[in-house]
Amino acid sequence: MPFSRTFVFCLLLNVAGLVAASTPNKIIVNIDLGTEKISKHIYGHFAEHLGNCIYGGFWVGDNSPIPNTRGIRNDVIAALREIDPPVVRWPGGCFADTYHWKNGIGPRDQRPAIINSTWGGVSEDNSFGTHEFLDLCELIGAEPYICLNVGSGTVQEAAEWVEYVNSDAKSPMTDLRKKNGREQPWNVLFWAVGNESWGCGGNMTPEYYADLFKRFSTYLRAGKLYRIASGGTDPDFHWTEVLLQKTQNYQHLIQGYSFHYYTFCHGWNHKGSATQFDENDWFHTMKNTLFMEKRLERHIALMDEYDPENKISLMADEWGNWFDVEPGTNPAFLYQQNTLRDAVTAALYLNIFNKHARRVKMANIAQTINVLQAMLLTKGDMLIKTPTFYVFKMYKVHQDAILLPIHLTCDDYVFDGMNLPSASASASKDVEGRINLSITNINPNKDVKIKIELRGINRIAKVTGEIITAAAMNEYNDFAKPEKVLCKPFSAFTVDKNLLRVSLPSKSVVTLEME
Ligand code: AHR
To answer: Which of 133, 194, 405, 429 has the greatest number of CB atoms lying within 10 Å of its CB?
Structure first.
């Protein structure tokens, strides 16, 4: 029997109502179900001898008129201390597999200049070497993470570097270190055995690299070491499998496995401008960032298969947005601006790493200063903090906190017939028992009203919040306007017992601290 038009219309309305009612924007935070610690090293950094990351970024030399401590910029030290950097990876990247560490020790005026053949063929005077890097780490309170040269170096050179840095026993290397002014070893824990050995690190096959990894790792012996193997490209699951298979009976030699993922707006050949973009570019940047989780999960699944006891950590030791260089700058220097879009994707990346804290024990954004998705940009004696810096500042509450399981349901952000979940979140409980919840709204056009339920308590006593957002999706800080995008207090929420109702502005990242 045919239905009347009115009946069908009412039915549709009811169905729409039911659907709307069954998909509220809601986050349930299970505050007593957390077991896993979010390693503080997930909030790590990466500094390569590339463009102006080291030279002009960190390092100006002790004769510079720019205020410095033993050659390291004071403004950089102060800014980085604000975000509690837990670890810095150095000297590369691709540069690491060309780096011969002995060129970078001893009196600076006697160090040889070399060519940085990876990044623009520019001269590298080696004034920033092992001692300067380890001094920098001490000044900013970060742990060092050194990447060894496997591609063009030798086992002996790598073993001697570890001995120089870590040994307390008398040897030619420790004598040399003392002669160069450092009595005590630094005891560096984290060592990468090559970088991207599938490409710039030697164009190897996984089978060849796995053998080489074991050979190098065997002779790295001074002190307690965390040896990190190079991963393949992010879609190369075969590399992961071969490496895990071939090291299965040598687990004392491998503690970490590296994973790199970069977001290009539309792909490697169409990275797009860092500042001049439209909503289509915004959407695809979000989409490509969120896709990282799929890649990560497949590598983790393989690790779970070969290392069910979770002894080998996944180290996402390069990640971030990679856009076109700023017009007029050296294409080999990878200098790009940083907008609100970078802040939002940084939050997405960090939420994903937090979520996988069981296996992901370190992540290092590429790179700290003046390169790719930087924290800081410098120009002469000026320095600006990027929107990404402020996300790291807001997220530092998650360092070493207990990850809290969340259940998130939200509307989609729909663009041109494609859709993505509009919200992403991450929650943790710190040692004082405070709950920190970070929420991101990737929709650049619509606020999200979201209900948050804290399961496990009756009443939320106190809430404070911070937000980073801007009127335009491509807003950024520049030397002429250094504070356009930064984190500000946030109070668009109401509290009712253990419920919080939050109005999350479009294109924003919010962190709420609850007691
Ligand atoms: O971060 C820039 C480069 O990207 C690194 O040197 C390399 O490891 C990666 O391909």
So the answer is: 194
